[in-house]
Amino acid sequence: MKTKTLLSLVLILAFTLSSCLKDNVDVSYSIYTDDEYETLSSILNLPNNKIDYLVKLPAHMSEIGMVSPSIDDAKATLGRVLFYDTKLSKNEAVSCASCHKQELAFSDDKALSEGFEGELTFRNSLALGSVPNFKSSYGGGSSLFGVNQQFFWDERAHSIRAQSVQTIQDDIEMGMDMSELVTRLSGVDYYDILFTKAYGNFNVTEQKITDALEEFINAMVSVNTRFDDAMDISQNGAEGNFALFNAEENLGKALFIQHCSACHGTNMSVSPRSVANNGLEIDYEDKGVGNITLNEEDEGKFKVPFLRNIALTAPYMHDGRFATLEEVVEHYNSGIKPHANLDDTLRDLLNPAYPKRLNLSDDEKDALIAFLHTLTDRELMADAKFADPFK
Ligand code: HEC
Ligand code: HEC
Predict the structure, then answer these.
(1) How far is the CA of 285 from the centre of ligand 1 (A)?
(2) CA distance 283 to 341
(3) Residues within a 6 A CB radius of ligand 2
């Protein structure tokens, strides 16, 4: 009798213990210890459960062999804090997010952005949150389809890590020496915790800073657009009318494929051209790629930007010269200038010395713009895991 009671006691105890253990297992899904979380929470608004940076690609991208970037959540979380931290600029006046605002698809609304001392950048801020950024996750700038993914308007950076070092150390943008930054972040209590979660110890290094930034930027993949929804159920890729588009958007898509896709692509995922001259000037003050290669044939060539979220990223072009998409379309319609390096696709077919004139009607121009609006992501701009984590 006694042994039986004892046995059942032991059993009950074992049962309670195991459910306790089970609770403990659940609790261990939280990322930080109570102490750590208290420290973080005094400054940061981070959840204590798993943040999932996994990117789910639409079927039409998977079908052409594109692969989701594999994102390490702890590194991306550290990258997110770095991205929003003004400690990255010399006088703690600006963060990456000052010029790359989430609500504007990680661009800003100025022709030229203001750096840490109020000086203007040379060029228009590029939107992040677009597909090209995750191609860089294939390492050192090499990427899918043998296309090297390059960064900046003149493609002078070959990885986001290299881009980040240039930006942080740029005299106008952030003015911060990398080694000074390492010293500044070392011993900051929230970074002790975040670097340890991401890299196993709290030693801050230049490599870890840029690696974490790259992880965060690679996670910003814009895929939730009406265009993607329509592509996923289309039988003919981007060709033909989309069931999910209205007549105006379908007209705009057809015009886009006819006049724009040679450079900007048809699937908004893979850009057929890396750089081109699109005839903004006869003589460029900013020589673009020509500044880097010092090759005359590269003067006036700039990165062919991806057009996802383009409705949110005004003003346009490398110098922000066009305030609206209407102005952009009018440029391609009637304003192309015959620069020596003007791309063949933008030259008159019969008289290649002359730029092409599209002679679009007002309805056609409106249609092109309506199509460009279908490229706006519904989620990225409001997604909490990309938002400013500082309280
Ligand atoms: C003062 C404004 C400013 C700040 C701060 C800033 N950027 Fe930028 N960013 C720009 C501008 C302007 C460009 C385009 C520069 C060029 O092409 O020469 C750019 C380009 C980029 C690009 C290239 C995108 C592409 O498609 O080629 C990336 C990536 C980027 N920035 C990330 C960052 C990160 C990460 C930080 C923080 C470490 C940062 N930026 C801080 C203004 C800024
Ligand atoms: C010959 C290649 C080429 C063709 C064809 C072309 N573009 Fe472009 N596009 C570019 C390049 C290069 C830039 C950046 C130029 C610069 O800033 O100096 C650009 C920039 C843009 C921008 C501004 C992007 C930004 O982030 O500021 C928009 C919008 C755009 N193009 C739309 C179109 C449309 C619409 C068409 C068709 C009517 C078209 N493009 C045809 C090469 C091309």
Answers:
(1) 21
(2) 10
(3) 259-260, 262-264, 273, 276, 278, 280, 302, 304-305, 307, 310, 313, 316-318, 328-329, 332, 343, 345-346, 368
C-alpha pair distances (Å), 240 with each of 126, 231, 250: 31, 11, 8
In 3D, which of 104, 158, 131 has the Cα closest to residue 305? 131
Separation of CA 181 and ligand 2 centre (Å): 37
pLDDT tens-digit profile of 159-210? 888 899 999 999 999 999 999 999 999 989 999 999 999 999 999 999 999 9
Q: Which atom of ligand 2 is nearest to the CA of 276?
A: 12
Give the per-residue pLDDT at 5.
55
Q: What residues have CB less than 8 Å from 376, skipping those under 6 apart? A: 225, 226, 308, 309, 310, 311, 312
Mean pLDDT per 10-residue run, the chain (391 residues)?
Answer: 52 48 53 96 93 89 83 96 98 97 96 97 92 50 50 88 93 97 97 98 97 93 95 95 98 98 91 91 96 95 94 98 98 98 97 97 98 96 96 96
Give Cα separations from 60 to 56, 188, 267, 307, 309 (angstroms): 12, 44, 9, 17, 18
For a substitution probing ligand 1, which of 75, 123, 126 has the most ligand atoms within 8 Å of its CB? 126
The pLDDT assigned to 362 comes to 98
Mean pLDDT of the residues in the chain: 89
Nearest to 270 by CA among 308, 299, 296: 308
Q: Whose CA is nearest to atom 11 of ligand 2?
A: 304
Cis peptide before 315 (omega within 30 of 0): yes
Contact 171, 164 (CB under 8 A): no
Q: How high is the pLDDT of residue 336?
A: 98
* Of 381, 367, 79, the residue nearest 224 (C-alpha): 381
Cβ–ligand 1 contact at 123 (below 6 Å): yes
